[in-house]
């Protein structure tokens, strides 16, 4: 008797994370503990290597070390990336991690293990993680790419797992693969593409094409007053210049810049009339 879950009766023992045929696939993999993590990722990687497919693994450093140790010498053939560094800004994961790897290898199927969400992601970062997951479906639509996204179901809140169900068409959980009944990436994208709520005392600057340098100087002065060191101020200057310039050019000619401290982080938010739909 055929199981009601998608391809469950013919799925490989590690849960059917691998593709059944050519084309794009984006399953979420729910795991609990190291044993399940390795059981759901390593066979997926090994299958790709056996088929001479390029494989990248972009996960937090402790998980990266776990996978590398399990792979042994075969790890040398895998592109290993510490997601806590390369994906610190979730908005850069698609262009700088996923597309950078896949776009250099367009003549073959590509496999990627990407873990953008882990315990410790801040409240400011998390909405961008959901947007990232939703936009993967557009960024690789029609491509021969498989992106397997592990989620620590034993440590992450239930609402995070709900968002994973909304942004991934298939789920792998406890060795079974099934279609996600909650899959609705556009709804998840729209819900998370809302301005952050700035705290009382946030610095505010309204800019246009004539005040771009002043907006940058304003942000630097406010960040310096909040204890930001000179090295990070240089990065901040580039970020603010890029955000405000793109806003002026592509989103109506101006907007509002807000800046505040959140723990040891400086949060910069630019609001305008634009809308991001192209990953």
UniProtKB/TrEMBL annotation:
GO terms for molecular function: protein serine/threonine kinase activity. Keywords: Kinase, Serine/threonine-protein kinase, Transferase. This is Sensor histidine kinase. The keyword Kinase applies. Residues 26-169 form the MEDS domain. The keyword Transmembrane does not apply. Residues 208-276 form the Histidine kinase/HSP90-like ATPase domain.
